[in-house]
Amino acid sequence: MVAPCPATLGAPRPRTSRLRALLLSTAVTFALAMPLAQAQEKLPDIGSSAGELLTPARQAEYGAMMLRELRNYGYLLDDPLVNDWLQTMGTRLGSNSDQPRQPYTFFVMKDRQINAFATLGGYIGVNAGLVLTAEREDEVAAVLSHEIAHVTQQHVLRGVERAQRDQIPILLGMLAAVVAAQASNSTSSGNATMAAISSGMGLMQQRQINYTRSNESEADRLGIRTLSRSGYDVDAMAGFFERMSTAMRGNEGGYSVPEFLRTHPVNITRISEAKARAEQMKKDTVLLTTTTPSGERRERVDPADPTLSEPLLRGSNPLLPSSVLRVPVGQLSRGPSGDFDWARERLRVLSADSAGEVEREYADLGKRQKSGLNDAQRYGQALAVMRGGRSGAGEARQTLNGLLQAHPDSLWVALALAEAESRSGQATQANARFEQLLREHPNSRPVALTYAEILNEQGNREAGQRAQAMLRPLLSQSGNDPVFQQRYARASELAGDSVRASEAYAEAAFLSGRPEQALMQLQALKRNPALDYVGRARVDARIESITPTVLELRRQGVQDPDLDRR
Length: 566
Description:
- The structure is a single chain.
- This protein has helices spanning 16-33, 50-53, 56-72, 80-95, 128-133, 137-152, 155-166, 168-183, 189-208, 213-229, 236-250, 259-263, 268-286, 329-332, 340-350, 355-368, 375-386, 390-406, 411-423, 427-440, 445-458, 461-471, 482-495, 498-511, 515-525, 533-555; strands at 105-109, 116-119, 123-127, 287-292, 295-300, 312-314, 324-326.
- By secondary structure, the chain is mainly alpha-helical.
- The strands form three sheets. It has a three-stranded mixed β-sheet with strand order 1-3-2, sandwiched between helices. Strands 4-5 form a two-stranded antiparallel sheet. A two-stranded antiparallel ribbon has the order 6-7.
């Protein structure tokens, strides 16, 4: 798998000054994160130097840097509900992987191409198109489990060794060709740019093509084990592969092949192996052993049976007695969250270019389906209508009211209804609904951030104070969340707390790939007379940590084009 670089995602071409930053980030991404599925034919021995190339802290730093760059160029979809759904699912899978202590960060790309990828530091991205293509949460979980296996097996680092030997010269040639094409006044410079990028990528892919099969097979094998441990349907992996294979055959007439199939080659052998593993996994996980006061007994039970205090899975570890593997019951009792349909439709709306486009999409769906739109699709349609403004919010409110009566426990519908109420002029009713949701879900990030957004839109001092008070307890655990920082900054601004507002705005700028803007905002904050001793020490520490990043970017000639440099 290749982590998609901004230059290949099909977005509008950035300005020349930003292109240089883009190319540099592309070089870093390719040089360090490209060969996820590109390792040696045999696993490295214990003496492999792969793990010595980058420390875990350094890997996390590169992963975070890539995430900031993607956000800077507008490729991420930062939605609290969708992100919480994906992160919860991914964290559950990661905790059941071979390295449960490895931290993971899961994020969504706006792109509707079918793709997923992993890179350094446990950063795993999923395109909106993959979720839209999946038919159930188990299939998304199967892909995430596959990506998690690439992380646990250090496929990135093992690929870095090879990348250091023969990819850097290719990268330099590719970047030189891109810069030359951009500097040209020819009307074909854009074509030359894409040709240079495609050629470079193609050459790197060809160099590595013989090293992909073993990694993909290994990730499938370990991924399906993680899937089973997490309580998901192990048949989902083969099922998703089959549909991807069908999509590939349907594109043989000259249409573009889904990106997922380029980085995750699917063939009959791979599908058959996935099916065989699933069948074996079902046999292994259904036969459990429990220990009783009178001794051991064997019985066939549901692996998700909560009555088993300590279920045991049959496994192949010769170091365990009778080849039995102990697995905590919590790992077996988990499965689909039940939120997949809501998440998919919310993604359909948020990944669309415009409200009109997605409304037409829902109209087509309604015509193709015998029974019309289902409830989740009606939820998505209401979100699309709400994007149309105040009048649309009133129409959406009526639809969402009916949906909430049918699904009284759906947080997704309740939050959307509260938003629609506020935006259609019923702020008091909306705030009361949000307060009730806060009482029912006191630790819910989506509830807090959605409510804060609505309070900020209401735009008065009282609303700002309420939003700030609600978000403040989450501050210590939301340092790397740009959505939180942006909404906390606006709430503090409305509440009259200029110091906290400036700090949060600076943090949001840094997390959005604008470290120089963050540094300038923090330096300006030091001149604020309201800044006390503790606050000044906090700001000085942040300036000290951001300055090296800004200096390195300046040394490389990368500048923020939005800053006035007169």
